[in-house]
Specification:
This protein has helices at about 25-45, 60-65, 65-70. The protein is mostly helical. InterPro entries: CbtB_put.
């Protein structure tokens, strides 16, 4: 009878599975905090930087983020 082309798990030719990748939380937390801070700043400038909540004078921030504002569904007119 012909042998199967796929080795079975019990065969001695099977390769051992690699060890799982471990990432300590201490290595992830600073990057996660940075990502959340950048996302919050981006959402503020795209969604709220106009009118009464404006931090910067003029309309240059509004005009710079105008298309992104409409793309994300924020009303601005």
């Amino acid at each position: 009878m012909a042998e199967s082309a796929v080795p079975s798990a019990a065969s001695p030719q099977a390769e051992p599975s690699p060890a799982p990748l471990r990432l300590p939380i201490r290595d992830i937390v600073p990057w996660a905090v940075l990502a959340v801070a950048l996302a919050a700043i981006l959402i503020y400038f795209v969604g709220a930087e106009q009118g009464a909540t404006s931090v910067f004078g003029g309309t240059w921030v509004h005009e710079f983020t105008h298309d992104g504002r409409h793309l994300l569904g924020f009303p601005c007119h």
